Amino acid sequence: MTRSIGKDSTIVRWMTHYIAACCLAVSLLAGTASGTAGAAPHAALACGSCHRQGGIYSDPAAAENRAAACVACHKGCDTIFDSEMAQRRGEQSFAQRSYARLDGDFYNKNCNSCHVAGCLDCHGDGAGIVKPAVAACQSCHKGYYTGWDYSGRAPREYNMRYQRGIAVNGETFLKMLPDVHYRAGMVCGDCHSMLRLAQGRRSAKGCRDCHKPDKNVIEHRISAHLERLECYACHSAWAPQEYGTFFLRFREPQLKEDFDLLPGPSPDYLRSAYLKTQDAPPLGINARGKVSPIRPQFIAFYSDIQAGRNNGPENILLAAEWRAFFPHTVQRGTVTCEGCHDNPRRFLLEPPSQRIYQLKKDGMKLESFWDRNAQKVVNGDFMAASRYLAMSAKGPAYTKAYIEKWKTFLNRVEPSSRK
Q1: Distance of CA 56 to the CA centre of its chain
Q2: For 356-372, what is each residue's pLDDT tens digit?
């Protein structure tokens, strides 16, 4: 008599977990043979050491059980599932106070593709358990978010005509100057350790843990620079910035064809932007009270394309929020003095007479992207106008440093002709 086994039976479920455990064990042994980092300690363990929890076989690294088998050895690392990497509370909060006002399911449609669901999301490469390489981090930290910039990538325009050149994981990018640490061979984990991430800290090291200010550098001799500025306020060469982010909602899918935009995660939406730049970012004040680069978290607009062009609400401004951040584009040199001290636009104090973009006349609801009125920094603040005026006064100390700085440039210039 032959017994029929249904697909939901205990036997089939047990066999599935058993096969998965054996496959992972084989991959770990293969990783040991090929020298895969991190594989050897695990290859020495019996399969059941990790895969049998409470008498049943299961995924030892899954978020559902807080990676119970992994944290049996890696104590405290389960708190990573409480962090932003897994919970994404910041993104959810932003979506809730902006696009969710018009589409309650906006976050699930457009923003829920990257989150940590288990240890192997970062520590597995298909051949074993590994320490994450830069490429592993950039599988989520990509596009407009910090990560791509470290290796010299900036997001392209959304129109399909600009999707050209080298593609990584199916995504093209603008090739930019990489961070000096990337060029030196450093990986993300050199500064962002697992222990510190599990403790809720973004990094294990700060700039001055490795670099001591050199008093031979003119800018380092100015005490206000060292006391009031983040190092990367001067040393970040560039950052991707997106001014005017549009999410276009389509009630009829065929209407999307006329826009020729890069497909997104949701069949209901396409994304576009009014302006993208990759230059030195504006400056504001971060949560530590120090001068820091800032960029639009999103200056967010919504259009509902119901039946055709200009049929439905368009260009609804839902948020104008900025975020203090650390562009991973560090270089040895810095901007010249007037890059900050004579640049009100960089502090969102752009005078009306200097405006190039006439946003209100273009239906954008803001006077200027670089005018702080009706905008805010969510994790800090804009620099007070009075402080900028004092900083740009150009007293004797500024003049002395400015002249000395320019002399260093002149001393490096080759003569244009020789006798």
Answers
A1: 39
A2: 999 999 988 999 999 99
